[in-house]
Amino acid sequence: MSNKKIIRNGQIESDTWLVIKADSEGRSILPDDGDIIVPLSLWQEQAQTLKQRAGKLGIWLNSDESPESIATDLENFQIIAINFPVFMDGRGYSYARLLRERFGYKGEIRAIGDVMQDQLFYMRRCGIDSFTIKEGKDIEEAISGLYPINQSYQAAADQPQPLFRRR
Fold it and tell me: Domain 5-166: which topology?
């Protein structure tokens, strides 16, 4: 188990998932067991092998990899991580909403990469329910970014009815 911390469902927890990345030559080393999150390219190359290994399976999408590419495979993943490579790249927000609203994904969606306190409220509204905070940032401070507003007017993945329908 990792000692890295994440925010999941509004709580700070230890992260049990290992994010698999390719080495400098494009290879990925897979542990024999344990919970892993693999890049889309590895899933596309080794889906059958990944389905048969011990441990839970997740996938991560880069900001240029649309959720349509995994829409027919969603039942294989207990978690989908969306990589936010830079603070200004907002495609991941749309991907989370597509996963929740169009494709009906009910599992965990995690924001990884350049994730900071100012983004958490909006990410949560789009359907993201766990967050790996950018290295060097204080997770205790960041968690306060989840609920800066207690009522939102617009409908979103976290509240499908607009405020006037809830009254």
Answer: TIM Barrel (3.20.20)
